[in-house]
Specification:
- The chain has 247 residues and is mainly alpha-helical.
- The protein has six helices and three strands; from the N terminus they run H-H-H-H-H-E-E-H-E.
- It comes from Pseudoxanthomonas winnipegensis.
C-alpha cells in the first residue's frame, strides 16, 4: 500500500504541470501569431489631382526668308570688296590737239515719214475714249441729289410720326403698380390725310395691358402726320414700336 499510494498524486502533479505548460505554450503561440493575423491598414490614397487641358495658342508659321536681289549699294560694296589693290598712278598722256567737230546736218524728212506721222496722230485720236457729255453728268448729279433728299424726307417723317405717338402714349396704372415693362410692335395704315386704319399688334409685349394701351395710343393720336408725297402707296403701311419702360 505504501508503494502504490504516491502514484495517483504523481500523475495528478504531472497532469497539472502538463496543463500549465500547454497553457503557457498556447499564450506564447498566440502572442507570436497576433502581429501576423492583424492586417496592416492600407496606405491612404493620395488626393486626386485636377487636370485641365489647355489648347495651345496658335502660332504663326515662321516667315520664309525672302531672297531679294542685291541693291545698288550692296553690289557696290561687293564690287569694292573684290576689287584689286589700286595700281600705281601713271603719268597723264600729253594732250593731243583735236580737230573741231563739224556740225552734223539732219536730212530733211521725206514725204513717206510725214505721211506716217499723220497716220499715227489719226489712230491715236480714234483710239481715245469718248468724253462724257456734260448734260449726262448733270442729269446724274441731279438724280443723286433727288434720291438723297427723298431719303431724308422719309427719315424726317418717321421721326415726326414717333414723336406724335409719344405725346399721346399713357402708361397704364395697373402696369405701373405691377412694374410691368415691354415693347409692342404696332402695325397700321396711314392715308394721304394722315388718318390711321387697320391698327393691329404685330408683336406683343407679353402683357395684355400694355398691348391694349399701344393700340389705343395710335387710335388716340389720329390724325397722324401725313406721309411724304414721294413715298409710294396709298395708304402707306408702317410698323412702329411703342415702348413702356419705368424710370
Amino acid at each position: 500500500m505504501s508503494v502504490d499510494a504516491p502514484a495517483p498524486a504523481l500523475r495528478r502533479w504531472l497532469l497539472s504541470l502538463g496543463l500549465v505548460l500547454a497553457a503557457h505554450a498556447l499564450v506564447i503561440v498566440a502572442l507570436l501569431a497576433w502581429p501576423a493575423r492583424t492586417p496592416l491598414p492600407p496606405p491612404a490614397a493620395p488626393p486626386q489631382a485636377l487636370m485641365l487641358e489647355l489648347a495651345p495658342a496658335p502660332r504663326a508659321p515662321p516667315a520664309a526668308p525672302s531672297e531679294l536681289p542685291p541693291g545698288p549699294t550692296q553690289r557696290a560694296r561687293q564690287a569694292s570688296a573684290r576689287a584689286a589693290p589700286p595700281a600705281r598712278p601713271t603719268p597723264p598722256p600729253a594732250p593731243v590737239a583735236q580737230a573741231p567737230a563739224q556740225p552734223q546736218t539732219q536730212p530733211a524728212p521725206t514725204p513717206a515719214q510725214h505721211e506716217d506721222a499723220t497716220s499715227d496722230q489719226a489712230a491715236a485720236q480714234a483710239s481715245a475714249p469718248p468724253s462724257i457729255a456734260a448734260p449726262a453728268a448733270d442729269a446724274y448729279a441731279a438724280a443723286q441729289s433727288l434720291a438723297g433728299a427723298t431719303a431724308q424726307a422719309h427719315v424726317t417723317w418717321q421721326a415726326q410720326l414717333l414723336g406724335h405717338l409719344q405725346r399721346y402714349k399713357r402708361y397704364p396704372r395697373t402696369a405701373q403698380r405691377r412694374r410691368q415693362e415691354g415693347v409692342v410692335q404696332v402695325g397700321f395704315a396711314v392715308d394721304r390725310r394722315g388718318h390711321a386704319s387697320e391698327v393691329h399688334v404685330v408683336q406683343g409685349s407679353g402683357r395684355d395691358t400694355l398691348d391694349a394701351e399701344a393700340l389705343a395710343t395710335v387710335q388716340r393720336a389720329d390724325p397722324l402726320p401725313p406721309p411724304p408725297a414721294d413715298l409710294p402707296g396709298d395708304p402707306v403701311r408702317v410698323v412702329v414700336p411703342v415702348e413702356f419702360f419705368l424710370p
